[in-house]
Structures are given as structure tokens and as C-alpha cells.
């Protein structure tokens, strides 16, 4: 497999970090600092291939934040904007050599498969944006991203899986550090194995890391004295959590997503690209009823969702039981229009609670 090295063979992607940030912002509400940092990191990653220097690759990253705040959504949107292949894998699926489950080699095969599909969809200009005069799917794959979600589940302090997780961390260290892996991604075409170079491939790990800072007092005192703020994650916190220092050191860019507030969830309910209530609006429209949702209803829904503590996913948990009940009413007694304001939302919610209590 060839590894182009010279700038005159390639050009930078026409997508800048500002372009990627704009794309992410259309689908991820809030998280301004995290979105800008992620957009810049991925733009830097793709730019590296204009003058690939194996001694100075773009850094890998660790994304930390509660569930449902947009971590996975942001990386998926960014990859789509840059037209690069992306594989998202749940860390609990991964297994070290000798254990049943998904190996890291399997993940690279998935990445090559994703790049094959991307190559089939891309036009010549898009391939040129990736610095590829020829549609080489292996080179497209090298420009991709491996996103390991639920990374915190690989902690060596995780009870009976601790020993297995340590083996997996060591294997992952090899991949992140750069290695050549023999793959057979073309079994369906009867072709030979290929050698895949992971150097330059971007790895982004993400997890909630619940309660990570609860024992921050155990940080080295010298380190504490040198910090202006103490509410941000540092390497020592992650090592205490159960991760090899060597592995965390190879994920040096730390991007933190914050919990979503009521105003963030209200904004989600007002943003067409991500508003979950539109699903219910369109369903009721198919039943012949035009549903309108007022701002005070959105505020009520957002407040209830915040109480659930699962980020944007809480919106569906609040919306579904109320609007499912409404749709059942409409099927029994059709109406042309229904306005869901805060008062009506509270009435529906009381009925939902009564049904749950068997009344």
C-alpha cells in the first residue's frame, strides 16, 4: 500500500474547522467549546495527509461527558461534513486476543468497509479533497476515525472484567501507537490479505466517566498547587479510574462535554434538525390532526427531561407517554387541531401517572 508523502501530490481539504463547527452546530445544541475543539482536531487530522510525517501525527482524543449530551452525534456529524469514514464501536463489544467477541482487527475491517462505501458515493472532487488522486479505499480508510464509545467501561477496576480490560488496554495501546495489521477485508471478493498501517489513523475515545472527580483530593499536591481550576479532568484522575498511564498519554487531547440545562433542551425542541417532537407531530398529522406545541409546553417538557438526568434522550421519555395517550384519544375521537401548552401537558402527564399506578 502506498503512503503519499509530498505536498505537491495532495491538497488540503476544502472543509475548514469553521465549516465543520457550523455543521456540528446545526445538530448539536450548546457545547460551544467542545464543538470548536472537535472540529479543529478533525480538520487538523485530515490536513496531516498533505504532508504526512510519521513522527508528528495529529493527536488522538478522549471525550468526556454525561450520557445524552451529543458526544457521538457530534463526531458522526463532523465525519459526514468532512466525508471521511467513521466506525463507532461500543467498548463493551471489544475483546483482547484469545477472548470471544469483536477484536480491534475487526474494527479496522469495518473501517475499510466504510471507506469502500464512501468511495462508491464520492465524486472526483470529494476524493481530491481527501488528497487522493486515485480512489484507493485503503488510503480513504487511513483518513478515517475510530470512535470508541463507553470507553470508561474498559477500566481495570471494573470488577471481574478488570483483567480482561487490562489486556484490551494493552492491545489498544499498540493500535493507537501505530502498528501494521494484516487484514482480510475482501473475503466477499476472494482477494488476498492486505497490510493496514494504523499510523495517522485517528482514535477518539469517549465515555461518561461518572464520579471521576469525586476523589480529586487524592491528586498529587504539587499538581494541585499548579492548577488554577480544579474542576477539570487531568491524567492522574484517569489513572486512578483504572487506565494505563501510557494509553491515556496517547489520547492527549481532552474534550469535555457538559450536562445539558433546561434552556439547552428547550433549544433542541425548537431546532428542526434535531427536535424529537417532530416525530409525534408528523404521526398525528397522519391521523388527521395538526399538533402545535407552545413555548411554555417546551419549557415544561425540558424541565421534566432534565430531572431524568439522561440528557437529550430524556425528551423522548417525557414526550412519548403523553403524546401516545393523545394519539389514542384522537383515534377514538378525531379532531382537526390540538394545541399542546403547559396546562395541557400537565393534564396529559397526570393521566400518564394514573395509568402507571393502575388507575
Identify the CATH architecture of the largest domain: 3-Layer(aba) Sandwich
Order of SSEs: HHEHEHHHEHEEEHHHEHHEHHEH
- What is the helix content? 40-55%
Enumerate how many helices there are, as a single number.
15
CATH topology of the largest domain: Rossmann fold
For the termini, the CA-CA separation is 68 Å
Structural class, from secondary structure content? alpha/beta
Output mean pLDDT: 86
| Total count of domains | 2
**The named CATH superfamily of the largest domain:** P-loop containing nucleotide triphosphate hydrolases
User: What's the total count of β strands?
Assistant: 9
Instruction: Give unreliable regions as ranges.
Output: 1-12
Main sheet: strand order: 2-3-6-1-7
Inertia-based shape: globular
What is the name of the CATH class of the largest domain? Alpha Beta
Largest sheet: 5 strands, parallel
Strand content: 5-15%
Rounded to an integer in angstroms, the radius of gyration calculated over CA atoms is 24 Å
Describe the structure.
- The chain is of the alpha/beta class.
- The chain folds into two domains: 250 residues, P-loop containing nucleotide triphosphate hydrolases (Rossmann fold, 3-Layer(aba) Sandwich); 95 residues, Helicase, Ruva Protein, domain 3 (Orthogonal Bundle), CATH 1.10.8.
- It is 47% helix and 11% strand.
- The protein is built from 15 helices and nine strands.
- Strands 2-3-6-1-7 form a five-stranded parallel β-sheet, with helices on both faces. Strands 4-5 form a two-stranded antiparallel ribbon. Strands 8-9 form a two-stranded parallel ribbon.
- The longest helix is centred in the C-terminal third of the chain and has 20 residues.
- The relative contact order is 0.13.
- The N terminus is likely disordered.
Amino acid at each position: 500500500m502506498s503512503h503519499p508523502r509530498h505536498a505537491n501530490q495532495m491538497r488540503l481539504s476544502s472543509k475548514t474547522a469553521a465549516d465543520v463547527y457550523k455543521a456540528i452546530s446545526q445538530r448539536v445544541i450548546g457545547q460551544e467549546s467542545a464543538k470548536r475543539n472537535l472540529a479543529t482536531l478533525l480538520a487538523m487530522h485530515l490536513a496531516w495527509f498533505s504532508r504526512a510525517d510519521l513522527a508528528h501525527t495529529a493527536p488522538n482524543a478522549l471525550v468526556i461527558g454525561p450520557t445524552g449530551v451529543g458526544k457521538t452525534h457530534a463526531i458522526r456529524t463532523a465525519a459526514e461534513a468532512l466525508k471521511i469514514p467513521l466506525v463507532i464501536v461500543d467498548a463493551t463489544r471489544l475483546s483482547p486476543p484469545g477472548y470471544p467477541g469483536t477484536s480491534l482487527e475487526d474494527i479496522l475491517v469495518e473501517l475499510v468497509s466504510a471507506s469502500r462505501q464512501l468511495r462508491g458515493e464520492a465524486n472526483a472532487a470529494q476524493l481530491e479533497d481527501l488528497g487522493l488522486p486515485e480512489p484507493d479505499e485503503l488510503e480513504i480508510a487511513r483518513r478515517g476515525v475510530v470512535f470508541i464509545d463507553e470507553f470508561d467501561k474498559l477500566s481495570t477496576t471494573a470488577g471481574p472484567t478488570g483483567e480482561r480490560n487490562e489486556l484490551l488496554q494493552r492491545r489498544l495501546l499498540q493500535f493507537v501507537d501505530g502498528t501494521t495489521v494484516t487484514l482480510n477485508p475482501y473475503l466477499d471478493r476472494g482477494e488476498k490479505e492486505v497490510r493496514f498501517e494504523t499510523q495517522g489513523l485517528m482514535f477518539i475515545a469517549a465515555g461518561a466517566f461518572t464520579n471521576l472527580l469525586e476523589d480529586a483530593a487524592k491528586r498529587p499536591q504539587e499538581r494541585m498547587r499548579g492548577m488554577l481550576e480544579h474542576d477539570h479532568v487531568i491524567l492522574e484522575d484517569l489513572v486512578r479510574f483504572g487506565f494505563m498511564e501510557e494509553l491515556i498519554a496517547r489520547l492527549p487531547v481532552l474534550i469535555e462535554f457538559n450536562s445539558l440545562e433546561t434552556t439547552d433542551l428547550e433549544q433542541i425542541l425548537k431546532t428542526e434538525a434535531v427536535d424529537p417532537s417532530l416525530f409525534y407531530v408528523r404521526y398525528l398529522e397522519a391521523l388527521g390532526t395538526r399538533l402545535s406545541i407552545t413555548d411554555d409546553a417546551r419549557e415544561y417538557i425540558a424541565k421534566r427531561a432534565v430531572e431524568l438526568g439522561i440528557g437529550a434522550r430524556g425528551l423522548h421519555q417525557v414526550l412519548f407517554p403523553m403524546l401516545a395517550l393523545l394519539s389514542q384519544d384522537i383515534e377514538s375521537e378525531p379532531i382537526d387541531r390540538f394545541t399542546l401548552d403547559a396546562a395541557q401537558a400537565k393534564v396529559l402527564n397526570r393521566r400518564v401517572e394514573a395509568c402507571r399506578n393502575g388507575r
